[in-house]
Amino acid sequence: MTIFVDGKPIPADESLTVAAALLNAGVTRFRSSGGGEPRGPLCAMGICFECRVTVDGTAHRRACMVFCREEMRVETSG
Q1: Which of 9, 34, 37, 41 is the most exposed place for a label (fewest CB within 10 A)?
Q2: Does domain 2-75 have CATH number 3.40.50.300?
Q3: Degrees (nearest 5) of the Cα angle 30, 23, 5?
Q4: pTM to 2 decimals?
């Protein structure tokens, strides 16, 4: 299946979290800190909140906790 990250199609599978799909596609910047530093997955189990992205218009979703769905729209800061 395909999900869209910042408007670009990337391959995914429903067994993957959004974080895994993004990392598989080479996306490492999921958001920016207040100072502008790139942020991405750290703990991969929903504790650190570093992997927050916007999913289908809902901000601050933890990419490591959301599973991919066909034609999902994901927005990162980078």
Answers
A1: 34
A2: no
A3: 55
A4: 0.92
Q: What is the 3-state secondary structure (H, E, C) of the chain?
A: CEEEECCEEEECCCCCEHHHHHHHCCCCCCEECCCCCEECCCCCCCCCCCCEEEECCEEEEECCCCECCCCCEEECCC
Strand partners, 2: 11
Residue 33 has which token pair? Answer: 């800190």
Across residues 49-66, what is the average pLDDT? 96
Residues 30, 62: Cα–Cα separation, whole Å: 10
Domain layout of the chain by residue ranges: 2-75
